[in-house]
Design a protein that fits this description.
Distance between the termini: 5 Å
Largest sheet: 4 strands, mixed
Oligomer: single chain
Strand content: 25-35%
Structural class: alpha/beta
Subcellular location: Cytoplasm
Protein name: UDP-N-acetylglucosamine 1-carboxyvinyltransferase
Number of helices: 14
Radius of gyration: 21 Å
Bound molecules: uridine-diphosphate-N-acetylglucosamine, phosphoenolpyruvate
EC number: 2.5.1.7
GO molecular function: UDP-N-acetylglucosamine 1-carboxyvinyltransferase activity
Family: Belongs to the EPSP synthase family. MurA subfamily.
CATH superfamily of the largest domain: Enolpyruvate transferase domain
Number of strands: 24
CATH topology of the largest domain: UDP-n-acetylglucosamine1-carboxyvinyl-transferase, Chain
CATH class of the largest domain: Alpha Beta
Helix content: 25-40%
Shape: globular
Strand order of the largest sheet: 22-23-1-24
Low-confidence stretches: none
Mean pLDDT: 96
Length: 417
Amino acid sequence: MDKIVIAGGVPLRGEVLISGAKNAALPILAATLLAPGRHTLLNVPNLADIRTAKKLLGNLGVHFQDLSGGLEVDASELTSWEAPYDLVKTMRAAVLVLGPLVARVGRARISLPGGCAIGARPINLHLKGLEEMGVKITLQHGYVEATVKRLEGARIILDFPTVTGTENLLMAAVLARGKTVIKNAAQEPEIADLAQFLQAMGADIQGIGSDVLTVQGVKYLRPASYRIMPDRIEAGTYLAAAAITRGEVVIRQAPVEHLTAVLDKFAEAGLRISVDHDSIKVSSGGHLIGVDVKTLPYPGFPTDMQAQFMTVMTLARGVSVITETIFEKRFMHVSELKRLGADIVVSGNQAVVRGVKSLQGAPVMATDLRASASLILAGLGARGQTEVHRVYHLDRGYERIETKLSALGANIWREKA
Ligand SMILES: CC(=O)N[C@H]1[C@@H](OP(=O)(O)OP(=O)(O)OC[C@H]2O[C@@H](n3ccc(=O)[nH]c3=O)[C@H](O)[C@@H]2O)O[C@H](CO)[C@@H](O)[C@@H]1O
Ligand SMILES: C=C(OP(=O)(O)O)C(=O)O
């Protein structure tokens, strides 16, 4: 298994270009199942999760062709309605084929996504919403089996604004008979990106970007061409890299309007930030200051930036209290950060971080995607050499991270184990 090695302590300087968003590309790829014909997707990031999604859709009969700067997705004929265990276990977002499959072929058989490092992550809200639309659901041998003759519009109130749950229900509703209203819908910008792709396919959706989505079902959808939004979490991670190395970085092609909570917190922590259209210039304005953060559904501070922000706080002056409200086990990076000398005490869903003068490089092990990013950041900010093991987690969600960081001056490389 590959590892990433970092010789830390170099302030990053230069420009970095943000890739397409993983969490928008995955539901949009799933949504291509809704319409026979050839779709064109632009700005698709080159990530392990995208390769897994292509395998999963390929298994259902979808064909792909690489275009210069894009991907052609041909969903003309579906030959299966099953998402097998082997593919679902490596990528939870595989569950996103459930809504489109019941909408297009009236049935789906999906391996139940298991618990993972960051929490239990059940899909009860996806299933309850689909049942309200007339889908018969049974659980057998670790698989969800879903069948429906005709999807019916419904009024759905989500107990929690689940991101992929909202996406699954939206993708089912666009081809249902009549009107569907999804209340307490998640408002993450990637859902708006999916909704805009669905509109380009001919769907009738009102309330995009809000917590009430109203969908008037249509008889059929047609293939569409769409450019995937840039990745706000990747952009936030490069902000953190500039902060922890006391560097000066320009982040280009950033989804600035969706980064408000993140930019506000970094500014409060003492970074100098200026924004020009889709570019963010960030430089360290003296010392970092400990600030408190609480993760929340969008537009609050994203849980997918919690580990990276915590890492920056390990070198700030004073104390920072970090509260995780979305996932019950998302502090797996703490024990590894402590190996580099961080002072962090966890109690329930709160981590109290007392800034230290310096971190020292050490071998560490990545446990999930954003934990991996946080360990890379810690390595960049530490004295001496850090080795991050189990980088397959990182490759799920960051395109060419060591190449992009090297171009900013970091001493970072990948070694084959
Ligand atoms: C592919 C993708 O877009 N992944 C993102 C998505 O994950 P995902 O869509 O899995 O996250 P959810 O919004 O569904 O989960 C939020 C919380 O709701 C709970 N829950 C969810 C569904 C359900 O049926 N029942 C239930 O109890 C979960 O266990 C969790 O505690 O949103 C998360 C929260 O912003 C991000 O961290 C992930 O990067
Ligand atoms: C938790 C994440 O992804 P996923 O939902 O795909 O596991 C993430 O992107 O941080």
